Fold these 2 entries.
Entry 1:
Amino acid sequence: MADWQREVREQFPIITAHPDLAYLDSGATSQKPRAVLEAVQSYLTTSNANAGRGTYPWANRTTELVERTRRRVKEFLGDPDPQRSAVHFTSGTTEGLRIIARDWLTSYLGDGDEILVPFADHRANLDPWLEAQRLLAGRGIDVRVRALPYQAESGDYDHRALEQVVGPRTRFVAATHVHHVYGADMNVHRIRAAVGPDVPICLDAAQSVGHLPVTVDDSALDVDFMVFSGHKALALPGTGAVWSRNARGPVFEPGGWRGTPNTVGIASLEAALDWLDAVGPDRIARWTAALTTRLTDGLLHFAPYEILGCQSSLAAGSSLPAAQRRHGIVTFRHRDIPSDDLGFILFSHGFMVRADSLCQAGADEKKDGSVRVSLHVYNTVDEIDRLLTVLTSLN
Ligand code: PMP
């Protein structure tokens, strides 16, 4: 094990307290380093108050914390124009996508407009757009929802077919950065080329922010919304954010009274982003990609297992360019063992994995069950090797 990784792993109290367990479900939520737990403790014992409402020091400090964390999110995302953009805190990606759909998209679309959305990604990135379509229909505005085309072989969006479905009425695209089942980078930078400079793009970055370097710098990802879950990026449960560029379409402003913000969650997010920057998203991504390749190489030629998603990426293994590699997520099925049984078997050996239909839009709970191993910086080569020993003992 690399020395830096051992040091990093030791900063996660829940991990070191359970040496006989392996947490392999970071795609669902991440574990928290001590720095985050300490920031929470410190906030609650020195400054806890409501934000934007007080005239005394604890309240002022809390208001400053919220504003500072907004700036920190922009900085973390490499925002080239922080004066113009905005950050709104949410409970996670689902809430973020929903408020964009409800409070922004419905005021932007007109009769006959078309939107492109993913039908085989996380349902959090489909349901809100369909709800917006229904809301608009109730107001007599007819919007056409089209599927972002997929290419099964490469495992990402079909960028050639995309050019066929983009038309003069295409007004919005929702996409996913890293697929939560296949771990594939969906090459969203190519979507901008297909839709041209004027169409807003909303990116579900739930599986990328906190896992790999992500920047909203126009030359890298020229998107208008970046939505992520703080709790998958080492912050507390119930945290997330919407970053909006406010350059195409109306300025994004969540509607209605939003009430008290999750100030403890925001304190945890600030500490998590500091921690991630100190360790280095690039180093984290290289580590989880290496573990991923070790796992897929170990399973690939073992007949009972089918690894889901792009098959050519498997054969090429670690020689693939970074963008083509699986980012810390490997989902598979056993030919004979139902996935929920496999989940129980793995837990009996101390492995915590996700075993169901993974909230994939259109997936059938019974038919489409699978087992997902999702990794973060605290996972080790030894965990992967022990997992492979158990998996390959199940013929
Ligand atoms: N999108 C993707 C790609 C996800 O993986 C998840 C979480 N599984 C979500 C959205 C939903 O995130 P949250 O539960 O934080 O709302």
Entry 2:
Amino acid sequence: MENCLFCQIAAGQIPAAKVYEDDQVLAFLDISQTTKGHMLLIPKKHVRNVLEMDGELAQTVFARLPKLARALQQATKASGMNIINNNEEIAGQTVFHAHIHLIPRYGLDDGLQIHFTAHEPDGSALSRLAEQISSEVRK
Ligand code: AMP
Ligand code: ZN
């Protein structure tokens, strides 16, 4: 897609520190290096985010993850890794070409902070919501 940064990187029109490439996907180092080795995995085909992926493209992209994650872990000797995907602006997406972040972790103050706020669960509301989502999945 014209004017898409990651399409341009996939096409080799903009330089990137490439890690892995085949005919379907590209992995390269994120320019922000939130932690050392922060890497992105993208499909070469332009889709906005995971919400726009079909199962086949998701299978192609996600199948590449474990090997890349292990390679990144080995190369950086990180203690662990967060694998993150942001969908839409409210979720922190800034580049609207689907991508998965692989962020090696070295310590609690290494540059990435994730905080899950727990809310008191309402059992019947949870069941209703689960049923609602379940019926959407079956459509
Ligand atoms: P997100 O905020 O989830 O959309 O992530 C977009 C990511 O793309 C950010 O972490 C940016 O640092 C990264 N990024 C932006 N421009 C480039 C670039 N030219 N090369 C590599 N990574 C980039
Ligand atoms: Zn694109």
